[in-house]
Amino acid sequence: DVGILYEDGYLRIVDRIKDMIIRGGENIYPKEIETVLQAHLAVMEAAVVGAQHDVYGEVPVAYVGLKPGAATDEKALREHCAQHLTKIKLPVAITILEALPKNAIGKIDKPTLRKNTPRIAAPARQGA
What we know:
Helix content is 21%, strand content 32%. The protein contains 3 helices and 7 strands, in the order ββββαββαβα. The chain has helices at 30-38, 74-84, 110-116, and strands at residues 2-5, 11-15, 21-23, 26-28, 43-53, 57-66, 93-97. The strands form 3 sheets. A 3-stranded mixed sheet has the order 5-6-7, with helices on both faces. The longest helix has 11 residues, at 74-84. It starts with a strand and ends in a 12-residue tail after the last helix. The model has no long low-confidence stretch (mean pLDDT 88).
């Protein structure tokens, strides 16, 4: 786990080190992005994993499950994220799933999401 130890002795857990995404040398904690996505009225659950990227090493990719009867789309979720996150933390892709995969104890199965997340190619340079 990764945490912050405050001067008054309190420890706040930020995320798990194995889940940390390193984008171009910058550390991104998926929990921060997941918290923003879960604040959207239509989102029931969210998971963010790192996708391999040709230039940045890794970039954040989000998977969300919606609340029963709720509706939204990737564009609305991107706009929501843009209001609360810096550009480097914005997911490069947001996939809405009927249900996120769970492991045997009912937690979101991030290893399965990581395994099924495609590599992100850098956009072709114009004039090259």
